[in-house]
Design a protein that fits this description.
about 325 residues; alpha/beta; four-stranded antiparallel sheet; 12 strands; about 30% helix; about 25% strand
Length: about 325
């Protein structure tokens, strides 16, 4: 393991790395404030992998960026709630305090490595730059090569001199992982890390994330719109729609018995090997625009189970079983 023996012992009782409580975020557009997140609450335990799932526009990336207060303010505004990282409220931190958690405690792997990587810096220089910021004593070629080898980049002694465009998409994503893990973070936030990769490389990246989580006792928040990936890596799944959490459950329970009609629809839209169907099932309509959320249940215009009450009464996120929450009054009705 790069950097010698990594300290992974946690203090007694310190089991939750992240706690988000009733988070509300708005985007300012001229004289109007448009709500983006509406009362989002979730937590991640030490060594746990949580998948945040939903269509584009649901608020997944905004939630992820809010954890380390990476949203530019303005236009973003934190309108309420708390974000606790290691028990400390990020929303009350000064700029200096934020620098102590960004990268070192919470590290990110962004969706498109070809865009996130600096095109004019060699691979080794980009990893070394991260080390210089968080572990200056390790900012040398031996540690860079060790990190690249650790994340599965072949011939790292040669790859450190490559520019990002000389690397394949899978190698670029591994380089991003090396940079994110250089500081030995407690929480890794991976935003669509397998997008645009073929299925073989997707499987390799997911297996790498599993292995790294075990080695580091690291927590992972995986952002995805693909429920097909959830069963491969998640301990728990949180489903987001129109700025609200609409279902949360252990991964096995959610995949075997989804409660919310939206979660069921997402699962039906995932292609399956050997499935004899002429076409994939698509969810009608689209995610409502920010600030233009329908009254009542926000999914009711697209829901096959919608009833007249659904357009008038907003359902609460209620516990329906141990460790399971769902925002639907008719969750126990057959689809």
């Amino acid at each position: 393991m790069p950097g010698g023996a990594l300290k992974t012992e946690r203090q007694a009782g310190d089991s939750r790395v992240l706690e988000i409580e009733d988070l509300r975020i708005e985007f300012e557009t001229g004289a109007q404030a448009v709500p983006v997140l509406d009362g989002v609450s979730l937590d991640i335990g030490s060594g746990e992998t949580v998948c945040l799932v939903g269509e584009s526009g649901s608020g997944k990336t905004v939630t992820a960026l809010a954890i380390a207060r990476l949203l530019p303010c303005p236009p973003a505004r934190y309108a309420g709630g708390r974000i606790l990282v290691n028990g400390r409220d990020v929303l009350r931190m000064s700029a200096r305090e934020l620098r102590t958690i960004r990268g070192r405690v919470v590290s990110y792997v962004f969706q498109d490595p070809a865009v996130a990587l600096n095109p004019v810096l060699r691979a080794g220089a980009q990893v070394r730059e991260t080390l210089a910021l968080h572990r200056p004593e390790a900012a040398h070629n031996d540690e860079v090569i060790s990190l690249l080898r650790w994340v599965g980049i072949p011939a790292p002694e040669l790859r450190i001199r490559d520019y990002p465009h000389q690397l394949s998409g899978g190698m670029q994503q591994r380089l991003m992982l090396a940079m994110a893990l250089a500081s030995h973070p407690r929480l890794l936030v991976a935003d669509e890390p397998t997008t645009a990769l073929d299925v073989t490389i997707q499987a390799q990246i997911l297996e790498l994330l599993r292995a790294l989580r075990r080695q580091l006792n690291m927590s992972v928040l995986l952002i995805t719109h693909n429920l097909g990936l959830v069963g491969e890596i998640a301990d728990r799944v949180v489903v987001l729609y129109a700025g609200q959490i609409i279902e949360e459950a252990p991964a096995r329970e959610l995949l075997s018995r989804p409660r919310h009609p939206y979660t069921r629809a997402l699962m039906k839209s995932v292609p399956e090997l050997g499935r004899d169907a002429p076409r994939l099932d698509a969810i009608p309509g689209s995610v409502p625009r920010l600030g233009d959320w329908p009254a009542g249940c926000r999914f009711h215009p697209r829901c096959p189970m919608a009833r007249p009450d659904c357009s008038r009464e907003a359902p609460a996120l209620a516990s329906v079983a141990p460790h399971q929450r769902v925002r639907c009054r008719f969750w126990d009705h057959a689809p």
